[in-house]
Amino acid sequence: MSIRPEEKAAEVWEDDGGRTPKSGEGQEPRHLEYFAPKTFQIPELKGISARNIKEHLELYEGYVKFSNHILNRIQQTPKDEANSYELTLLQRRFAYEHDGMTNHELFFEQFVGGPGACAPDGPFLKQVTKDFGSFDDFVACLKGVAMTRGVGWTMLYSCPDTGHLIPHWVDEHHVGLLSGPKLILALDMWEHAFVYDYPTSEKKKYIEAFFANLSWIKVEARFGR
To answer: Which of 87, 109, 131 is the last residue of a domain?
Structure first.
């Protein structure tokens, strides 16, 4: 009895989104490094422990690893009917791994150099005032988005057509990302971002710690690009 393509894929599917070759199966495939993990000089943070940052960075490196792994698997998998189901799973998984990688790079970069205020008369703060009335109201809005139930990301976008700032919630890493607006702030609200410092019932304390350590200089620079 023949094995259907979806059954074949289920047999070889792993959490990393790829297929483990059997020993001695053909020539060793070429592995390309499409992405490399970035390093971040993060100072001591207030309310976010060095242990949590260390564990979080290791998790980020996993997204880099599996982004490379999946792209290589896609390249190596024959593009035929027998492999179509596995290829579909790989393609869908890639968005999760890749966006998990890039979202974390935005997140960690915001701590480099320590907290810093944006220019008082700069274009970013002027847009904040225009859209939200005041900087305090703007931050309160972002904190409110961050309290959304479930895991995900609090994002701030800048719309290139109108200049407006758009706070937004993104489920997982890739579900709900906006197409077109530029991502200028990323707040990780997955529990791994604060699990060593706060229980899930106290994630509000983590949100406060994030904004206490945030470099608005980095956010402003992204807005101006």
So the answer is: 109
- Nearest CA-CA partner of 57 in 111, 114, 113, 105: 105
Question: Has residue 196 been placed in a domain?
Answer: yes
Contact 14, 89 (CB under 8 A): no
pLDDT at position 225: 74
Q: Which of 84, 109, 134 is the last residue of a domain?
A: 109
Residues paired with 169 in a beta bridge:
154
Helix (H) or strand (E) holding 51: helix 50-76
Q: What is the pTM assigned to this prediction?
A: 0.84
> Distance between CA atoms of 66 and 56, rounded to whole angstroms?
16
**Do 186 and 212 have their domain in common?**
yes
Q: C-alpha distances in angstroms, 116 versus 41, 45, 147?
A: 15, 13, 24
DSSP string, 161-199: TT--EEEEEEETTTBTPPSSSEEEEEEE-SGGGTTTTS-
List, for residues 55-78, the tens digit of each pLDDT value. 999 999 999 999 999 999 999 998
